[in-house]
Write the structure tokens for this entry.
Amino acid sequence: MKCLTQKYWLSYVLIYLFYVVSSLVCPPPPEPENGGFMCHPPHCEKSFTSGSVIEYFCAEGYMLKGDYKFLTCKNGAWNPPMGVSCRLNQETNRNTSLGVPTLSIVASTASSVALILLLIVLFVLLQPKIKSFHHSR
């Protein structure tokens, strides 16, 4: 009878330990379309234990909907409970509204300014020589 009681006691302990351990592990967090998440500490993606923090990010040209981008695993659930999504960044579209990439506009403007500065420097340097050439005649 004593042996039978110990087996039941051991099974209750194992069930309790399983419950405690499983309540400390969170399910995989939702991954947004056009984005993903990083886990802190690194490499915690294998097991999301209590205290794990994930940081959401979006692909280039997209931004997170809302201000909060961190979730924390607490007692088997992600806190704060929220839906995470990445939406198209409207600022990206405004920068290229004419269909011309912003980088090419900046590059052509910089080239034009550099050319104008070069011409001014040449004019300033050559002006005394031109005056002396006209005076010598």
